Amino acid sequence: MTGWSRRRLLTTALSTALVPAALAPLAAPSQAATATGAWPFRRGVNAWPWFALTREFPAPRTDYDWPPFQSQRPVPTPDDLRRLRATGIDFIRLPVDPGPFLAADAATRAKLLDMLDAAVTATIDADLGIIVNVQANGATHYWNPDRMVSSTAAPEFAAYRGLVGELAGRLDRFRPGMVALEPVNEPPQSCESNVWSQVQASLLTAARASSRTLPLVVTGGCGSMVSGLAALDPGPLAGAEPILFTFHFYEPYLFSHQGAPWMREPVYRALNNVPWPASAGSLEQTLASVRARMAGDTETSEADKQAAYAETERVLKVYFDAKPDRWFIDKYLSQARAWADAHGIAPERVIMGEFGALRTDARYVAAPNPDRARYISDVRQSAEAAGFPWAFWDLFDGMGMMDDTTRVLDPAMVEALGLRMAQ
């Protein structure tokens, strides 16, 4: 959820690749890894920020303090993992910031890899599968996606590629069928970019040099959106089998990302009380909430507020005129299912690797919580109707299903995800 150019989606959110021959044919995948429903990944949750929220030193330094992860970040305990399994969750998607690994000396890198091994072990011990996702941090001044995966000529691509290969070798040692590796999160290239195809092919080749059987998760360009998957030609990737495919889903962003402070467009700063479905509220009610929030904003100039309000009013008119509800989600996900069907890919191999919406709580003013629950339920049910596994974003923080401090599960999110409450 690093936020590709999805920020441009205000103008398109409601509108309805060639891989180089670098992947030589490999040994046939084992029967356990074939795509007929044997995959352990059906209902998952992202476990950010377990290996995120880093403590990098400011420029011109390119290294990290030790330990490199912020001590106050929420990290799931073995008990948390067991309770997640008891709800019906069967896998964790674990975002891992590669920066601390790549900046470290050999001894420190070994410590970090041991920490990651321990997290994988704890997850498997809780009878959960795990997808380890190498997720570069776009907010980091040096070890960011542009320097690592923007192209095969990126300054740190070779180092990143080496880490992907090393991770594949280490993950290969764990129980077969329980672990997969996702080399990149939300590639920044355009949907049909040959540059992304080259990057992905090179990373898959590095992973396969270390493991012939570890499942690898591949994706399309433009931030792993549905449109990126639809543009992906899976044929040339056959040499990297066993593989899974993934896409992310947050449409419409006016709902899912309302009030999100990390969004760059000024519209999102004061956006709140956007209903789901649209028919559950009105344009007038939402604009009144926006005006009230803007009135309390002492950091933004009046001129900037006026400009932001005008744009907010414009995009909200589009939102309410379109009347999005479950049909809107079904239409989007039908594109992913049509792609899978056209290429003879079982839908169980296509994971909706992220979906979610920011909640209103003590930290955020965002979606009304009943509306958020309806949205999450609609997206989850739409994915299941299409046959897709899914991974909710997120376990913790403003999009989470578990309180950061008390570790209490959110009953509304548990119900919306079709799970059961666990003690």
Number of domains: 2
Uncertain runs: 2-13, 15-22, 24-37
Strand order of the largest sheet: 6-5-4-1-10
How does the helix and strand content classify structurally? alpha/beta
Distance between the termini: 29 Å
**Number of H- or I-type helical stretches:** 15
CATH top-level class of the largest domain: Alpha Beta
Kindly state the percentage of residues in helix.
25-40%
What's the Cα radius of gyration? Answer: 21 Å
What's the rounded overall pLDDT mean? 92
Shape: globular
DSSP strand count: 10
The run of helices and strands is EEEHEHHEHHEHEHHEHHHHHEHEH
What is the CATH fold-level name of the largest domain? TIM Barrel
Beta-strand percentage range: 5-15%
CATH architecture of the largest domain: Alpha-Beta Barrel
Please outline the major beta sheet. Answer: 5 strands, parallel
Q: Which homologous superfamily in CATH is the superfamily of the largest domain?
A: Glycosidases
